[in-house]
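Handoff note, outgoing to incoming analyst
You'll be picking up this chain. Sequence as last confirmed:
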Amino acid sequence: MAFTTMNGQTRSSLAEINITPLVDVVLVLLVIFMITEPVLQSGIEVNVPKTRTVKQITEERMVVTIDRDQNVFLNDQPVNVHDLPARLHQAGVDPAHQAIYLRSDERVPFGAFASVMDAVKLSGITNVSIVTQPLELKGSAGSAN
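Most recent structure output, in case you need it:
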């Protein structure tokens, strides 16, 4: 595009878009997302059982997890099942009013699950929510006449 100045000279405009800063910002954002993605999905991978009645998790609570190899974790930290009652007890919190989530892989034997539940009960915590996945219903449940 050309325009004329006051003294009669013709000049062209310098209306170019410099996309180098845009590319720099996009690449920085891409690197940030690549770094934070594994952090967002951190945790112990567990295939929890599927049930028909599932309540949506809304509160932040401590999570006890039993993975498929029967390793026990408190939040994301490995813990010995014998140390679990002491680790669950929070200073200044009445265990009767404390609540936890219990996640267990569906392949864990009931004996291992019962041992962890026993350790939780030894800590004095009685409000235990067992984490499950919703059961995916295939097809219709039937027709009513």
